[in-house]
Model the fold of this input.
Amino acid sequence: MKIEHLGIAVKSLETSDRLFSRLLGKEYYKQEAVEREGVTTSFYKVGDSKIELLEATSPESPISKFIDKKGEGIHHIAFGVENIASEIERLKKEGFVFISEEPKEGADNKLVVFLHPKSTNGVLVELCQEKP
Ligand code: ZN
Done:
């Protein structure tokens, strides 16, 4: 595993893109809407990892709910794995709870699943695998 990216929930991509491009000294390399998840994302390369900014596209979006409860900030940590199906099996055997055990298409050409924060010290953990 490696830290593939950190997801940061923001109220406004426009505002936060200005902030992060100043912070990192570069523009995002990709902006992408993930309709099913109710988010628009911007991705920045930071060394071998990335920063993913997430803006809600509707009040029902998980990002809206997160910001209502906790405000803007770090939303999830994403571990890049070689084989998402075998990692899901391994972690289930270890007793971890998944929000959904079926990998879905996420942003940035990835298959993704999320572990429930109640089984990971309150941290929302994403596993992601590059799509074949
Ligand atoms: Zn992510």
